[in-house]
Amino acid sequence: MTGDLSRWIIGHKIKAQHWRRRGKKPEGDRVEQGEKVPLGAIYRVFFEIGLFSFGGGLVAWIHREAVDIRKWMTNEEFLSGVALTQIMPGVNSTNTAIYVGQRLRGLPGAATALGAMLTGPFCAVLLAAVFYQYLLGLPGFQEAMVGVAAAAIGMLLRTGIASAKMTTKGLVPALMMVLTFIAVGILRYPLIPVVCVMGPISVALAFWRTPSVPEERA
Q1: Nearest 5 degrees, angle CA 148-CA 89-CA 74?
Q2: pTM exceeds 0.70
Q3: CA contacts within 13 A on the Cβ side of 151
Q4: What's residue 5's pLDDT?
Q5: What are phi and psi of 35, to 5 degrees?
Q6: Would you list the DSSP string of 146-183?
């Protein structure tokens, strides 16, 4: 049974790599412009993300699948949602899944994405709890988990750089980003007070810098 599972995982990854090299989406996930994404496709994608994204980095995995591979949404739409999920209560990855699902299919899409992403890890954690001592005894298991976690950090860094490139178009946005990073990352100020102070200032500056559109004369 283990061998069959391993062959299925390897075959699935080889097939996915084949489509990526050809610059196409998997056949079952193709959606024409204006056509709704099937709930089954949403469930399959988020189930695989939750099951195979070892070491964290779920937001980066979601970005790769929904934006880079399947083109379900634009990079700007995704990163705007990520910015929103960062300040919302709850886990960023689950908030992002809800956001993407809602953008694709409304409330049913949000429920499908969230349920699919949690199903795989839930079953995996139950199995890991049963075989925990056995897994720790496997040669190189802990080292492999450290390597996977490092890869997840790299994917998160890629998503962060892409978000920074989109939002820091000018001196003021870059300055706000640096000040927020210093306040939270270096000075260790609580996140909520920093957001409550920096958020309104950033919005006000962005509103002030946006050129007004002249009204058309009748």
Answers
A1: 65
A2: no
A3: 11
A4: 38
A5: -90, 145
A6: HHHHHHHHHHHHHHHHHHHHHH--SHHHHHHHHHHHII
